[in-house]
Amino acid sequence: MLGWLVAIFGTLVVAGSILWIKPSKRELRITALRQEAMKKGLRVRLVDEKLKDKFFPWLDDYRGYVLYETHQLPVKEGRGMKAVQVHSSAELHELDRRNMDGDQARVLANQEYIPNQISGVVLYPDGVGLLWDESGDAEDIDGLLECIKQLHSAC
C-alpha cells in the first residue's frame, strides 16, 4: 500500500513539473507572432520602463506592448527619431493640432493605414516602428508590414 502511495505521489510530482514548464496557448501564439515578424525582416523589441519614459509617456502600463520595427527602408534625410500617439486625434484640442510638427500631422493624417491595435508610431530616419499590443495572430504581420511601408512613404 505504501508503495502505491509513493508511486502515485512521484507520478504527480513529475506530471505537475512538466505541466508547470509547458508554455501556455498565449505564449505559443506570441512566439509564433514574433517568429513570423522576424522571418519577414521586422525587429521585435520589448518595451521597458526606460523606453516608455522616453517615447511613450501616454502609456499607463507598458508591459503589454511590443515595438515591431524595421530599419531597412530608404533613409529620409532630416527626419529624426520621434514617437507619435495614434488613434487619439479625436481627443486633441485645437491648440494641440496647431502645435503639431509636420511628422505628427502626417502620421495622424494617414491613420486609415494604421490598425486599431497600434497605440503609437515611431519614425526613424531609416524606418518605422509600431507599438502593438500583440492582440492579433500571424496573419496580421503582413498588415503591419504594409502599414510600415505606407507610413514611411507618407511621412
Write the layout of secondary structure elements.
Elements: H1 2-21, H2 25-39, E1 43-46, H3 49-55, E2 66-70, E3 82-85, H4 94-98, H5 102-109, E4 118-124, E5 127-132, H6 140-154
Antiparallel strand pairs: 1-2, 2-5, 3-4, 4-5
**Total strand segments:** 5
> Structural class, from helix and strand content?
alpha+beta
Work out the radius of gyration: 21 Å
Q: Helical element count?
A: 6
Could you give the order of the helices and strands? HHEHEEHHEEH
| Overall pLDDT metric | 83
The main β sheet shows up as: 5 strands, antiparallel
Notes on the structure:
It contains 6 helices and 5 strands; from the N terminus they run ααβαββααββα. With 155 residues, the chain is an alpha+beta fold. It starts with a helix and ends with a helix.
Structure keywords:
single chain; 155 residues; alpha+beta; five-stranded antiparallel sheet; 6 helices
Quick take:
With 155 residues, the chain is an alpha+beta fold. The protein has helices at residues 2-21, 25-39, 49-55, 94-98, 102-109, 140-154; strands at residues 43-46, 66-70, 82-85, 118-124, 127-132. 21% of the residues are buried.
